[in-house]
Structure formats: structure tokens, C-alpha cells
Amino acid sequence: MRVFVTRRIPEEFLEPLRAHAEVEVWPEADVPPPPDVLRTKAMDAEGLITLLTERVDRSLLASAPKLRVVANLAVGYNNVDVAAACERGVVVTYTPDVLTEATADLVLLLVLGAARRVREAIALVEENRWRGWAPFDGLGVDLAGKTLGIWGMGRIGAAVARRARSFGMDIVYHNRRPREDPTVRELGARYVSFPELLALSDVLVVLVPYAPELRHRIGAEEIRAMKSGAILIVASRGGIVDEAAVAEALATGHLFAAGFDVYEVEPLPEDSPLRRAPRVLLLPHIGSATEETRAAMARLAVDNVVRVLRGLPPQTPVPECADLAGKS
Ligand SMILES: O=CC(=O)O
């Protein structure tokens, strides 16, 4: 059996797979295989370990007759056409849970960094422009007593809410449906409509998974509906928030600050309006990038492939395909 891995990952994580399959690894660490290479490799592979940068679409799946499992090394899987995979009997897996805490940490870093204008502060020191303690220069805003709005209250949202509570913030959230589980209730997080979320949040965190119908769901109009002086954090997938509209709202001062870890186009194009916007903290999609978490993600993805190849249910099939994977 053959498995193609679309990025170089440490050999120790691939070891368990080598006992069951011939493993081929794309040799680059940070550049994906070109689509035609992925297609060729998929043609005679039983398994693929993919990243969020790889498009596993209907046509690629159709040209991969032996494929049994696509293990996405990410919690988001909008890069995979899950419906097409399910139809073909291909199991799709992802890496939830293991990255929840690391990603929530990074969201808080963005919240704190945006609220305290840390990018400007660092530049002051690095560029040797710091002239001394100034009582009213470079001021940020407090978080205690403010309202944190979470759009997308899932595992990561709840972990963000937990952290924000310890900073003295009140929590509101919006999902398609209220979450009834005790974790969210214990956090005192209040379910609100989408317009209420926009209107109530001092800090709004976007954590909702990408879906095509959500493209630019937060645009100029929605930003206008937010409080003047609010902070917007984007941490799930790019494209949900109109980046040009955010840059404009930062320029006019309607938004106090913004923080991004994900973008509509990655890596961020040189001419992105966000680069020229004031008070914006831009990170290169590193939500889960800790040693422990990436190791856990790699182990989980590899284990999922091994299990499917051995005819066992994987640990973490995507919910849409859970039945197919023998786990519901
Ligand atoms: O963005 C990263 C992930 O989905 O895991």
C-alpha cells in the first residue's frame, strides 16, 4: 500500500506508518506539491496525509481509485471536498482536540497584542525610537469589564472563553444554534444573534470554520454595525472577513485594532491592504504551532491512516463521514 505525505515532517512520526505502507514524502517543509504532482501521487495511493494548503477536490478524488483515507493535518478541512470523498467511500480525518489549547493561547495573544498595540511598541524599541516613559502615548485599552464576542463557539471558542473569563471579560457568542453543553453554560457565555454579536462585542473573535457562503460575511456593513473602538480578531480561516474593509475601518479609527492569524490568500500578498493598515497585528497562520501540539497532530493523523489501512475505525473522522469510518 502507498501513502503520500504532502510535506516533510519528522521521520519519527512516520515510523508507525512505514510498517503498513510504502510512504512517500514531498521533500519541502513549507511549500506544497504542485496540484499536478499531488494528482499523480494520489493516482496510486491508498492514503494521503494532506495539509490545509492542498485542494483535495472531486476531480482529484475521481482520479484516485485506490484511495481509502485522506488525513488532513489540521482541525479545519475546508480544503477537502468531504461530500465527494464520502460518496466514493474515502474516509476523511482531521486533528481536533489536540490543538485546542495551543490555538486558544494564540487567540489570546492576538487579543492582548491588539488591545495593547504591541506591534507599535515593539517597533519603538527595535527601531530605537523609544525616548522614554510617556504618560499618554501609545495607549491601549483594558480588557477587564469588556465583552468578548465569539463567532464559532466550538472547542477552541470554549477554550478562548475560559481564558477571557480569567481576564475579567464577559462572554457572548453566536453559532447556528445555541450550545447546550455544561462547559459553555459554566462559562456564563450568553448566546446572541449575529447582529447582537456585532453590536455587543468590544472584542470580536472569528472562529467559525470556512464555508463558501460565509465569504466576506463580515464586510464594511457588518464592521459599521460594530461598536466604535472595537477590536476584531480573525483566527479560524481567511476569507470570512473582508480584509480590505478591515483595513479601511482601521484607517478611519472605527476599529481600534485588529489581529489576524489567517488570511484569504496565504501567504499574505505583498500588496495586501492589511500590511499598510494601522494597529493591526499580523501573524503567519501559527495557531497550533507549538512543539507539543504539532507532534500530537502528526501522531493523530498518522494513526488515523494506519487504522483505516488496517480496516479499523480512525480516531477522528470528520463528522460528515463518521458513519462511513465506522464511528458515529
Ligand atoms: O488552521 C489550522 C487548522 O485548521 O488546524
Protein architecture, described:
The chain has helices at residues 11-18, 35-43, 58-62, 82-87, 100-115, 118-126, 155-166, 182-186, 194-200, 220-224, 243-252, 273-276, 291-309; strands at residues 2-5, 22-25, 47-50, 69-72, 91-93, 147-151, 170-174, 190-191, 203-206, 230-234, 255-260, 280-282. The chain is of the alpha/beta class and 328 residues long. It folds into 2 domains: 2-96 and 290-325, Rossmann fold (3-Layer(aba) Sandwich), CATH 3.40.50.720; 100-282, NAD(P)-binding Rossmann-like Domain (Rossmann fold, 3-Layer(aba) Sandwich). The protein has a 7-stranded parallel beta sheet with strand order 8-7-6-9-10-11-12, sandwiched between helices. Strands 2-1-3-4-5 form a 5-stranded parallel beta sheet, sandwiched between helices. Strand 3 (47-50), helix 3 and strand 4 form a beta-alpha-beta unit. Helix 1 packs parallel to helix 13. The chain is globular, with a radius of gyration of 21 Å. The protein starts with a strand and ends in a 19-residue tail after the last helix. The mean pLDDT is 96. The chain binds glyoxylic acid. Glyoxylic acid is lined by residues 52, 74-76, 99, 287-288. Keywords: NAD, Oxidoreductase.
